[in-house]
Structures are given as structure tokens and as C-alpha cells.
Amino acid sequence: MSLQFIVAFAVIVVIFIAKTLKIVPQQQAWVRERLGRFHDVLEPGLRIVVPFIDRVAYKHNPPCQPATTPSYRSMASSTFRFAIRNWPPTAPATTYSRSRNWRKRRCAR
After folding, report:
1. pLDDT along the chain (109 residues), means of 10
2. What is the pTM of this model?
């Protein structure tokens, strides 16, 4: 075998591997078609696509979600207000207890 044949074969193998492995980024979903028809949806991560038979037909970017939910925001703001209201502390820390029905108010939201 000649050196040119080995180099050409190596280039073909590298191209085949590059077309086979796809990396789907976070917060995206790719639609895969097999022979022109819908096959499945590729989730984020390293995925294998059969070259020359499968193709990525559509790349979907869903809208971004907020990092915190409203329940966390309300709990954080109520804790912050509680700390501000009792500043400067004039009594021992044991007097800063919550009211008796704090759990009912929190779960009702």
C-alpha cells in the first residue's frame, strides 16, 4: 500500500466520524430526519447520526426560563423584610420566632 492511499483513507475516516458525532448544545433540541421523514428529536449532549441517511432538519431554541421560581422569590423577599424589620436587634434572638400559622400562610400561595 502506498502512503497516498493511507492518507486518503484516514481523511475519509475523519470526515465520516465528524458527520457521525453531533454535539447538541444545552437549551436546544434538534429534529432528526431519516431519509426525508421525521425520525426523532435529539436532546442535549453527544448524539450519533448515521451519515448520508440521517440529517438534522431543524434546530429548536426554546425560550429561556427564569432562574428562580416565584415561590423562591417570595420566600427570599419575606425573609429579607423580616430581617430589616427587626434591625437593630434589641432583644435576644429567641424573640424573633415566626408566628404560629406561618406554615399555613406559606402553603396557601
Report:
1. 92 93 92 93 93 91 65 52 54 50 48
2. 0.51
